Amino acid sequence: MIEVRNIQKHFGATVALDDVTFDVARGEVLGFLGPNAAGKTTAMRIITCYIAQDAGSVTVAGHDTREESIAVRQRIGYLPESAPLYLDMGVIEYLRFIGHIRGLDDPHLNTRLAEMIEVCGLRRMSHRTIGTLSKGFRQRVGLAQTLIHDPDVLILDEPTSGLDPNQIIEIRELIKTIGQQKTVILSTHILPEVETTCSRVLIINEGRIVASGTPGELTSRGEGDARIHVTVKGTPETIEPALRRSGIATEVRLLGADAGRVRYAIASAEEEPEERLFQLAVQNDWVLTELHRESLSLEEVFTRLTTQDVTSS
Amino acid sequence: MRNMLTIAGKELRSYFNSTIAYVFMVLFLVLSSVFLFELQKFFVINQATLRDFFGLVPIIFLFFVPAVSMRIWAEEQKLGTLETLMTLPVRDWEAVIGKFLAAFVFLLITLALTFPLPIMVSALGNPDSGAIFCGYLGLALLGGSYLAIGLWISSLTENQIVAFISAFVICLVLFIIGVDIILTAVPRGLVPFFKGLSLGSHFSSIERGVIDSRDIIYYLSMIGFFLFLNVRTVEARRAL
Questions:
Q1: Cβ separation of B87 and A82 shorter than 8 Å?
Q2: What is the CATH number of domain A226-294?
Q3: pLDDT truncated to tens, each residue of chain A (313 aa)?
Q4: Does A224 contact B at CB distance below 8 Å?
Q5: Cβ neighbours of residue A286 closer than 8 Å, sequence gap 6 or more
Q6: Does residue B155 contact residue B233 with C-beta atoms inside 8 Å?
Q7: By Cβ atoms counted within 10 A, which residue in A119, A228, A244, B44 is the most buried?
Q8: Which of A308, A287, A305 is nearest to A296 (CA)?
């Protein structure tokens, strides 16, 4: 649905995007993850035709953003960061204006308008002036604006910023529902958001894609040895030497010992370290009370990729 | 075309939604009348003519029109709504002309509200209605040119005050270079050039009651030129 090929963008001497390439398929919810000023917003602005790239190409549903900008814009619903709106307009008046520009005829517009007010939870606020609304409701008006023409592609720049926890959950659910039939790109620096809403993640840092994959792939990628937590009945004096002798672990670290149990964190380079540990316990007649693999959280992956990579590249 | 009118309609409604537009409008009407009756001594002169009025308004317009145009693009940039507008399926020229039309209609409405003056002169005497018509036509064209300049300036900044002052200065310069005092100071060879370029000298010939196609074309090309610059500025923003 969206094809981004080798785009580059400079602002003066600073490089905002450096040779970025990715695809987004229909029905995919792609999350842009990255620290502030990583290039997330710039990438979105290029796809939505707000700014033009210096090099490379972007096509949306087969239309080039530079050659057929209007065709691209017709297919996209875009919510810019912090949902800028005309503060002196009423909610309905604003959505009507957008609907007219989007080419909806009046009967169709009226049904869509009613739907949007329902879906975005704007019923109580529909007769207010936008300037009098709180941040959360402005965000919803912004979202209604992006959805009103039922676009194939949705581009949402930090859609949940400034919302309260309940609203965040609602908006995430909404994005998930919409994302089943549409193509969505959303940016965020809230990691749980990516885990709950996105089918694929791009981690961007300093204008480059440093990682891409499903949230699961990224966390299990693990970068190195598997880490296993194991708890056994016994004392450190008997358990630890046996663990070290077994050769399963490259690293053994005591996490704690109490009530006759010891807890270890083990790093292992083995394919199936759980299995070997279980067999070891059976051989030694240990009572195993815990055995699980620690997966690297998305947070850790993110921190590693966005801090290390800068120094190594 | 449809988009252009949609934008014009939205903009025009926002003028009448905001208090500031009414303030400017009232201020314009009050000032033009005060100057006419107090400074120009309309009743003392004892002539049923609006010539003094038509001489005054271009000066008041120097303040009024930039005040109307200053927010048009600058505010969109400040609020960030430009990002929404520019990513809607609207061509740049549609947005520019739509905004210009709305402001121009607002200007025409303000001008139309000075209608008690021609009625008053007609009641007092027997004015030259052709000259009054020409005067209003001249004001509309002159105001439209100021507006096109102000609109363009507004697209260059997000600061409304900067937009106001810059538009005021440019309009003032373009107006004043046709004034006699300035013309006597410039080299003789440049006089026709200055006169030809000046927003003021073309106005004085229309206001005298002579509709010369050259003057009309001059104003229309001024408007066209600055709207063109405006479209280019908006386009250039994309490549930023």
A1: no
A2: 3.30.70.120
A3: 899 999 999 888 888 999 999 999 988 899 988 888 888 999 999 999 999 999 999 999 999 998 899 999 999 999 998 889 999 999 999 999 999 999 999 899 999 999 989 888 888 888 999 999 988 889 889 999 999 999 999 999 988 877 788 878 888 888 888 888 889 999 987 777 887 888 898 988 888 888 888 877 777 665 556 678 888 888 888 888 888 888 777 788 888 888 788 888 888 777 778 888 888 888 888 888 888 877 666 677 777 777 754 444 3
A4: no
A5: A232, A233, A234, A239, A280
A6: yes
A7: A228
A8: A305
Token pair listed for A115: 């739907």
Shortest CA distance to A187 belongs to which of A172, A202, A177? A202
- Chain B, nearest residue to A54 by Cα: B239
Nearest-CB residue to A101 (from B13, B17, B90): B90
A154, A183 in Cβ contact below 8 A? yes
B81 and A73 within 8 Å at the Cβ level: the answer is no
The DSSP H or E segment spanning A226 is: strand A226-233
CA distance B87 to chain A (A): 6
CB distance A20 to A208 below 8 Å = yes
Mutation to test the A interface, candidates B16, B83, B85, B240, most A Cβ within 10 Å: B83
Task: Give contacts of B6 with chain A, Cβ < 8 Å.
Answer: 97, 100-101
Contact B139, B61 (CB under 8 A): yes
Q: Is CATH 3.40.50.1100 the classification given to domain A2-220?
A: no
Q: Report the residue of chain B nearest A98, measured CA to CA.
A: B88
Q: Does A146 touch chain B (CB under 8 A)?
A: no
Asked if B56 contacts B30 with a C-beta cutoff of 8 angstroms, the reply is: no
Inform me whether the C-beta atom of residue A51 falls under 8 Å from chain B C-beta atoms: yes
> Looking at CA atoms only, how far is residue A73 from chain B in angstroms?
5
Residues of A within 8 A of B87 (CB-CB) are 48-50, 73, 76, 78, 80
Dihedrals φ, ψ of B117, to 5°? -65, -55
What is the CB neighbour count within 10 angstroms for residue A139?
24
Is A49 in contact with B80 (Cβ distance < 8 A)? Answer: no
Structural contact between residues B56 and B117, judged by C-beta atoms closer than 8 angstroms: no
